[in-house]
Amino acid sequence: MRLLEERIRRDGIVVDGDVLKVDSFINHQMDVGLFQEMARQWHEDFADAPVNKILTIEASGIGIAAIVAAEFGVPAVFAKKSQSINLTGEVLTAKVTSFTHRRTYDVIVSRRFLGPADHVLIVDDFLANGCAIDGLVEICRQAGATVEGVGIAVEKGFQPGGARLRGEGLRVDSLAIVEAMDPATGTIAFREG
Ligand code: G4P
Ligand code: NA
Ligand code: NA
Q1: Residue 131 alpha carbon, nearest atom of ligand 1
Q2: Which of 51, 80, 137, 166 has the fewest Cβ atoms within 10 Å of its own Cβ atom?
Q3: Which residues does 5-phospho-alpha-D-ribose 1-diphosphate bind (predicted)?
Q4: Does 27 appear as a known binding residue?
Q5: Predicted complex ipTM
C-alpha cells in the first residue's frame, strides 16, 4: 500500500537493523485517517471472504482492529495478555513467546466472543516472527472458528513469520513489507507487490 509505505519512509525511525519505530502514527499516537485507508484496503482485499469478526491482541492491535471492524461492520475482539478477573467462565487460551521481548505470556479470549459460527480476520500492527499470530490462530482453532486471513500493517520481510505463516496456508495480507533497513542512513527498502 503506497500510502503506508510513504508514511513509513517519512515518519518511521530505523532504530537498528531490525526494529522500526512507528510510534508517531501507528502504535503510540495513532493516525486514524491512515487506519481508515488501511481498513478500506483490507475490506477490498477480503471482499470475497465472509468475515464476521475482527480479532487482535492487546495493546497496539486494538486501535487498528476497531477501525477495521467499523469498515467491515462487524465486532472487534482483542485477546488479553494475562488472566483477568473480568473474565469469568470458560476462556480460550494460548501461550505466546515473544522473541523481541524474550518472554512468554498467555493470551486469553472469552468463549462468549468467539465460536464455530465465526469467520475471523486477524489484524495486528507488526509481523516479525509470527508468534502473536500463532497464538491468535490457536485460539480460533480452539473456538472452532474459521480464520479467513491475517491483515498486517507492517511485515518485516527479513524475519521469518510471514513466509512461515503463508507456508502453513494462511492468507497473509501485509500492507507494507520491509525487506531491509539501514540504521546508518535511515534507508528502508520495501518488497514490490
Ligand atoms: P511476533 O509476534 O511476530 O513473533 O513478534 P515478536 O514476538 O518478535 O514481537 C513482539 C512485540 O514487538 C509485538 O508487540 C510486536 O508488535 C512488536 N514488534 C516487533 N517488531 C517490531 C518493530 O520493528 N517495531 C515495533 N514498533 N514493534 C515491533 P507486543 O509485544 O504485542 O506489544 P504491544 O505493543 O502490541 O503491546
Ligand atoms: Na502488536
Ligand atoms: Na507492538
Answers
A1: 4
A2: 166
A3: 128-132
A4: yes
A5: 0.93
